[in-house]
Design brief:
It is built from 13 helices and 10 strands. It is of the alpha/beta class. The longest helix has 22 residues. The protein is globular. The chain binds 6-O-phosphono-alpha-D-glucopyranose. The site of 6-O-phosphono-alpha-D-glucopyranose (G6P) has 15 residues, from helix 4. It comes from Pokkaliibacter plantistimulans.
């Protein structure tokens, strides 16, 4: 993970392709054979982790989307109430800190002004302890937090975050499983998920091998002005992240909605000029998502569907499908991020924008 582009045209593409390795590095030593390491922060922190009764996550930008995914995981697997909020909102409103709250910040740089300010405020508001999920050792966030769980993404140069996000998700899954295990996580499920995590880097590799097909899909977007991303459950934040990537680097207006909200507004915008991207793994919400897709088709909208090969969604008029490998449903958010990153990358390249340095944006926002 050196800081030069090597064979790649842009840092962003290089960083997308580094994901199998950096996810592996983030899991190393934390996920064992069939079991998760519950000693993520050493013996002294164990008692503290055992007393956690609520989780408050704070972040900005892409890191906030990682937090949104983690909320689904933490409540489902660890059974701990979890809230997620944008740092700039949290710091300026009156909040209520639940007893024994673990305050989790997520940040690639560890220098985002609002995230740091929120951490300082949380201490005054009586959080039990603070934990930083961060990519830069020695950053302000790491120094000011009680505990840290480092992502091992290596230097990320492209302003649009890619490998930092998937390593944040990997670290958050490790944290979730560790919290869940001391709260009675079923050992079969633990083994299932740790095995799935072990295969994750290879699955990401399989998705990267589909990049040419994604490049082909991208040609349909290059002249569009607007786009809509749909997902359900923990894939909703992934739809948000896909839309953010497209906005950031291709300057195409992109919105994301939980698919169940389609009827409550965005459907009014759908016509043949509005591509609709859906993240549609074969999970239990698939049937509902399929009916959302039919609503889009009935209005002439073209669908771009990232789907599990067993989901039973086949190519037909108005549907462009990319089949992805099967993975444990709880890990789908990580895997399904990758084709969306590739999609915005190739759209931006076709539109000729400055992929690594999008206009008006900074890699790290250290002022308010
Ligand atoms: C900026 C970057 C984003 C990033 C956000 C939060 O807006 O352009 O890519 O997600 O800051 O940064 P952090 O370093 O706290 O994760």
């Amino acid at each position: 993970q050196s800081a030069d582009k090597g064979q790649y045209k842009h840092y962003m593409l290089k960083e997308i392709f580094e994901q199998p390795g950096v996810i592996q590095a983030t899991l190393n030593g934390r996920v064992g054979k069939g079991e998760i390491n519950t000693q993520l922060f050493g013996d002294s922190a164990q008692q503290l982790m055992d007393s956690v009764q609520a989780v408050q996550i704070i972040a900005c930008g892409t890191s906030y989307h990682a937090g949104m995914v983690a909320r689904y995981w933490i409540e489902e697997l660890a059974g701990i109430p979890c809230q997620v909020e944008i740092a700039s909102e949290y710091r300026y409103r009156k909040t209520i800190t639940l007893p024994n709250t673990l305050f989790v910040t997520i940040s690639q740089s560890g220098e985002t002004a609002d995230t740091l300010a929120a951490l300082r405020v949380a201490k005054e508001r009586g959080a039990l302890a603070s934990l930083a999920i961060c990519n830069v050792p020695g950053s302000s966030l790491v120094r000011e937090s009680d505990l840290c769980l480092m992502t091992q993404a290596g230097p990320e140069i492209g302003v649009a975050s890619t490998k930092a996000f998937t390593t944040q998700l990997s670290a958050l899954m490790v944290l979730t499983l560790s919290l869940a295990k001391t709260r009675g996580l079923d050992s079969t499920l633990e083994a299932e998920l740790t095995d799935a995590l072990t295969t994750l880097p290879a699955k990401v590799e399989e998705v990267l091998a589909l990049s040419q097909r994604v490049e082909q899909l991208a040609t349909h977007f290059a002249d569009k002005q607007h786009s809509l991303f749909l997902g359900r459950g923990a894939l909703y934040p992934i739809a948000l992240e896909g839309a953010l990537k497209l906005k950031e680097i291709s300057y195409i207006h992109a919105e994301a909605y939980p698919a169940g909200e389609l009827k409550h507004g965005p459907l009014a915008l759908v016509d043949s000029e509005m591509p609709v991207i859906t993240v549609a793994p074969g999970n239990e919400l698939l049937e509902k998502l399929k009916s959302n897709m039919q609503e889009v088709r009935a209005r002439g909208g073209e669908l771009y569907v990232f789907a599990d090969q067993h989901a039973g969604i086949e190519d037909q008029e108005g549907y462009h499908i990319l089949h992805l490998p099967k993975i444990h449903p709880l890990l789908e958010p990580i895997l399904y991020t990758v084709p969306l990153q590739l999609l915005s990358y190739y759209v931006a390249v076709i539109r000729g924008t400055d992929v690594d340095q999008p206009r008006n944006l900074a890699k790290s926002v250290t002022v308010e």
